[in-house]
Amino acid sequence: MDKGYFFSRKRKEIGIISVVAIIISSFSLFFYQQNITEQNIKDSIFNQYKNRQIESTQIISERIESDLNLIMSILQGISDSVPLQEGELYGDRIQKLMKEKFDQINNITKVDGLFIADENNIITYNIVSEGKRSFVNIDISFTDYIQETRNTLKPVFSDGFNGIDNIFSIALTVPIVNSDSGKYIGTIGIQIPTAPFFAHSGNINNVNSQFLVAYDSKKNYLVTPRTQFIGKNFFDNDVQNFFNVTDIQNNYYRKVFSGKLLGGSAVYDFGSGERLNTGYPILLQEKPKYFIFIITPTTQIYSHINDILHTERIKVISLIFGLSFAVLILILFLIKWNYTLNTEVRKRTKQLRESNRQLSLSNQEIAQANEELKVHDKMQKEFINVASHEIKTPLQAIISASQLLHMYPERQKKFASAIQRNAIRLQRLSNDILDVAKIESRSLKLKKELLDLNELISNIIEDYKTIIVKDNQNVKLYFKPSHDPLFVEADKERIAGVISNLLNNAIKFTKEGEIFVSTEKEDNSNNPYALVTVKDTGQGIDPEILPNIFSKFITNSFEGLGLGMYISKNIVEAHEGKIWAENNNKNGNRGAIFYFTLPLSKKVVGT
């Protein structure tokens, strides 16, 4: 055998082995770096989600605190009323007063009953919800909150308890004390069922998604998806053993229960999966009285993160396999056609440059996505600042009116009206913020029912006509329904909110003119749908705002959070509908037109 041929063949084998070794090493290093990059991205996105959940928990805590303080102020108003100050604990005047305040409180949250007890702790008057028992002439001296109210002569927010009707509740009580003599006359109080009250703020039933847990000052459960533990202490052995509670979890709960930790978080695994927990105290009378915790399975968070990374990973892997294939082809060409080496090297080098360019573009896309997340986080913080400003305005009005009410009780109607109006505005702001939190955490739930869209809109139109007349606005409101009923399966309250948002927007930007609302049935092959149109003759939509009209925080006014259109869009799309807007610039017209569609119910269409 020719030695030259032997050594030439040997050099080729060594060269091939070297190339393969370099490829394997390069790919190993690449995958190692890729794993580090992906882990950094996961950590960054997780921290952003955690911070948003901390802020959301604080907002929910402050909203609950606001609702309870508002209810307590209503009870204080009853206690300070003329009939009760004169010692009148039942009768026609009391019945009228209690009915008015009971309805007012039920607009804030569902309550079981509003009662008055005399100085001997005997209930003299009790107004209750439909289907509930009245407990007039019942002695309630045995209750802790009644004893505390009488002993301290101060308002009391009670811990959780099982009521006479065996419904777990909390009580709010205010002593009735004569302002002149200081004599104790009795107690005014209300019972709030904990389940429906806290359900307004989050999921309290399903442990497989983000859910809410609440405790009283004794660390006893007020609400939890594990209903068998309601009323039990978090640190009881049976609770600790059931949940396999870890030291991390216990230490975190102790810090929140102490009232000193405002806005922390904990991540732990108690055997059935890892959880992200954010807690916040509810401060009442400047003391932590109740505590809420928002708990999210981290699998839910990482599922969203992995969806983002999965797409990028597919791109990278496809690029790697393409590159590997190109290199293998190059090696085969080196073996079989050595004389074409220079030509093939130039060709594959060009391909390699293009592959590297694509890899660079892919990495740029990942960096851009990270920048977009930073921008989104900045927008969230800006939103918190705007929301804080918007919430302070009605709060300040409520505080001022409350102070004036104490100073000038003879002008009660005027100041109470101001308090109620600003409280409703504050509640609407809170509901908008909570809706956005639910939308972004994908926890928005719809309570669908079969309803006639024409009938719903007609009722809303009538309400708005009354408001327009009351406010002396020079706006005409017209409704042209379709010839036939439009039955849809939808969440009545949410769709009513969408229609109200569109009408509020039209009235807001139509200082003088007309607003036309119409409905019609549209056929699209086998998928008929209802089309709702809201057209006004106002100033129209700013061209700079129009492309982003349904985005968050888009507004050109000096009031509001710019969330109405964003919430409306998500609600309509959650019903598998569409919503869009345009300016009415044809034939010399002016104003804006909003449209949205909802699928017609197949049950009715098929009959």
Task: Please describe what this structure looks like.
The protein is α+β, with helices and mostly antiparallel strands and 607 residues long. 52% of the residues lie in helices and 20% in strands. The mean pLDDT is 83. Strands 1, 2, 3, 4, 5 and 6 form a six-stranded antiparallel sheet that branches. The chain has 14 helices and 18 strands. Among the domains are: 118 residues, PAS domain (Beta-Lactamase); 158 residues, Heat Shock Protein 90 (2-Layer Sandwich).
Give the topology.
Blueprint lengths: L2 H77 L2 H4 L6 H15 L6 E6 L4 E6 L15 H9 L3 E2 L3 E2 L5 E10 L6 E10 H6 L11 E5 L5 E3 L13 H7 L3 H11 L8 E4 L4 E11 L2 E11 H39 L4 H67 L4 H29 L7 E5 H18 L3 E7 L6 E5 H17 L3 E11 L6 E8 L27 H11 L4 E5 L8 E8 L2 H4 L2
Parallel strand pairs: 13-15
Antiparallel strand pairs: 1-2, 1-6, 3-5, 4-5, 5-6, 7-8, 7-11, 9-10, 10-11, 12-14, 15-16, 16-18, 17-18
Helix pairs in contact: 1-3, 1-8, 1-9, 1-10, 8-9, 9-10, 10-13, 11-12, 12-13
Short structural summary:
The protein has 607 residues and is an alpha+beta fold.
- The CATH class of one domain turns out to be Alpha Beta
Query: What is the first-to-last residue Cα distance?
Result: 92 Å
Gyration radius, rounded: 33 Å
Oligomeric state of the chains present here? single chain
Instruction: Give the biggest beta sheet.
Output: 6 strands, antiparallel
The portion of residues forming beta strands comes to 15-25%
- Beta strands, count: 18
- Mean pLDDT across the residues is 83
The percentage helix is 40-55%
> Can you tell me the CATH superfamily of one domain?
Histidine kinase-like ATPase, C-terminal domain
Find the CATH topology of one domain.
Heat Shock Protein 90
Uncertain residue segments: none
Structural class: alpha+beta
Sum up the overall morphology in one term.
globular
